[in-house]
C-alpha cells in the first residue's frame, strides 16, 4: 500500500465509477482496476461493491477512504509547510508547451531573482494533456496549454470540469523555422508547395481532449514524405541548424534565439490555422508574487516577439 493507491481509492469513492475516476486521474481504466485489486489483496478486504450502476464503498471501504483522505491531507500539509513555510525556500513551478518565447520569459524571470533568495524552480515542457495533469496532480502551480482554435470548445469544457481557471495569453499562427542559408530563407512568404522534398521536424505528441489520438494526429501531423519527430526543443535546434533542408512549424521565436542558432522564421501564405496559448491554474490557488512576476515577464516577451513577426 502506498499514497498513490490511497489517492486512487479516494477518487473512485468520489466518482462512484472506475471509468470516471480513471479519466480524472489520467490513467487507463484497466490499470486503475488492477491497482485497486492489488490494494484489496494486500489489505485482505473488499473495498468496493461493483455493480452495473458503478462502484460503492463497502463498510470496510468507507473506513479506508476516510483514513486515506486524512492521511493525504496531512501529507499535503507537510509538503506545503516545507515548500512554502519554515524552509524559507521560494518554490515556483510551471508546465508549458515547447515554445521559445515562453522559455525566454522564464529565463528572464529566473535571472531577475535576487541572488540572496533561496529558490527551487521547476520548468516542464510537455503537451497540453500532461500540463493539465501536472497542475491537477503534481503540484505545478501554473500551466500553459496550447491548442488549435477549432478545439476551443473541448478545452473550455475540460478546464471547467476540472475546476481550473484559464486566461488567454495570445493567439497566433505558426511560422516556419529554418536555417538562415536554407533554400527557402530568401523568400519572405512560403507556400505549402515550397515544402515538398524537405524534411519536417515535429513534436510527436499532440493532444486534444475527448478526441481519438489518431484523429488529432492526422490533423496536427498530416502526412509528410520526410519527418523527424522530437520531444524537446534542444534537439530541434540541433537538427535545424545542421541541415538547411529541414524546417519546423513553431510559435514565433525571440530574435536572440534565432541569432544564437543561425535560424530565421518565415510566414506561410497557405497556413491560416489559428492557435491559442492559455494560462491555467487551480481555482484554489492564489497567485503568488512570484507567479505575478513571471506572468509580467511573459507578457513583456510576448509583446516584443509577436510585434517583430507582425512587422
- Determine Rg (CA atoms, Å): 23 Å
What order do the helices and strands follow? HHHEEHEHEHEHEEEEHEHEHEEH
Mean pLDDT: 87
Q: Structural class per helix/strand content?
A: alpha/beta
**What CATH architecture of the largest domain do you see?**
3-Layer(aba) Sandwich
**At the third CATH level, what is the topology name of the largest domain?**
D-Maltodextrin-Binding Protein, domain 2
Global shape: elongated
Q: Percent of residues in beta strands?
A: 15-25%
User: Helix count?
Assistant: 11
Q: Strands across the major sheet, in which order?
A: 8-12-7-11-9-10
Count of folded domains: 2
Helices, strands, pairings?
Blueprint: H1 3-15, H2 18-25, H3 29-43, E1 48-51, E2 54-57, H4 59-84, E3 90-96, H5 100-111, E4 119-125, H6 128-137, E5 142-148, H7 152-161, E6 164-172, E7 175-179, E8 189-190, E9 199-203, H8 213-220, E10 227-230, H9 233-242, E11 246-250, H10 255-261, E12 263-268, E13 275-282, H11 289-310
Parallel strand pairs: 3-4, 3-5, 8-12, 9-10, 9-11
Antiparallel strand pairs: 1-2, 5-13, 6-13, 7-11, 7-12
